[in-house]
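Reopening this one. Same input as before:
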Amino acid sequence: MKKIYSYIVKSLLFSMAIIANILVNQGQLFAQNAKIKSILFIGNSYTAVNDLPNWLRLIGESQGDTFDVIAYTPGGRTFSGHSNDPLVTNLFQQKNYDAVVLQEQSQLPSFPLSQVESDCYPYAKTLVDSARANNPFARIVFYSTWGRQNGDAQNCVNWPPVCTFKGMHQLLHDRYIQMAIDNYAWVAPVNSVWKAARDSSQMNLYQGDGSHPSYEGTHLAAVTIYQTIFHKSLKSNCFVGPVTSDDHKIIARNSQRILFDSLNIWKHDTCKVPTEFTFTSSRIGDTFSVSATATKIDPRGDYNWYLLENSKVKHLATGYQLGTIKLLANSKLYLKVKNACGTDSFSQVFSVLNIPKIQTPNKIKTILIQNATELIVKHSENIKDVKILDQFSKVIFTKNNGINLNQTTINISRLTPGIYFVIVNNQLHSRMMIL
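Same output, byte for byte:
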């Protein structure tokens, strides 16, 4: 992935140095869902019981969506176990899955944070990276599971927060969201829909062990995962299996409300092309260049910054000039960006602030003498005013008192490393670099 974009612009205007400032104007994305033709489930018995993957496929067929499902769900399996299983590696390599649903062992994410950080998070990333290695545009969904019906009695003594459903639920909720944040992935909020259905009805979501899902529980998971992947509400003819119509309505209502009212919580806003970048500018003679470097990269797409438009420079009454350059985020081969959310187009605008013409050496001359702590400014005329600007055109130092001679000393020991511009008597004469 190329992260740096450079473009050289010929300037017939003044010889100028460039100080750039990113505007707050940020483009909007208009994404269409990519066609889902295959879904891979990596999990354990919570996925295997009642054949959740096939239940999802039947819901899809009832809604007009046809896709294949493949599942690998050994009982009690953790992300760590999956990460070290060659069968999982082979599954990722065999096919370009459009969506991958990942489900961790049902208790592990609710354990103390230090244990989750060592035994869960790194392996979640390994699985995500493995899925994207074969298809960088795959839609990665974390299937957030629920708390035990009466809490986790097995671990309650040593870890009291999981002694109740509520405590275990909240920890699972938070940890799955964190995994999505860490991996630019999505959450299927089965955990939250489960709690809402449990709180608002007498529906039996559990099997007799108080852990695994009943038919109603599996239907709840399938409905929520379907709406998460396809981003659309259910039609009235939805497949329900042995679940009653009344229970289905409760599940569908809660799933739609929780999912679509809070897409940002479930990290579905990660479809946006990252817009944060820094840039530098330089000038050689009458030619100047602007180099933009993306500082926030979406690992799912193959993005580049391309110059879309260089506007005419406008002359302002102050003597400054303001130009605007548009950058377009594109893939290498297509006019639009393809990513896990579909096909997007996006542009970012920033301004180029051009300082007036540098005075010719035979008329006005400035010499900068710099060491680690001081900057000595020597000028061919009396110094009335000195300003130091950073690369984003922000004035960070001004000295205009007590200057009567053609030399002054400025303490620069507190400046951070970077490029700075020195303006003397409101004329830009030179720049300095602090390493």
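So the earlier flakiness isn't reproducible anymore. For the record, The domain at 38-270 is CATH 3.40.50.1110 (Rossmann fold).
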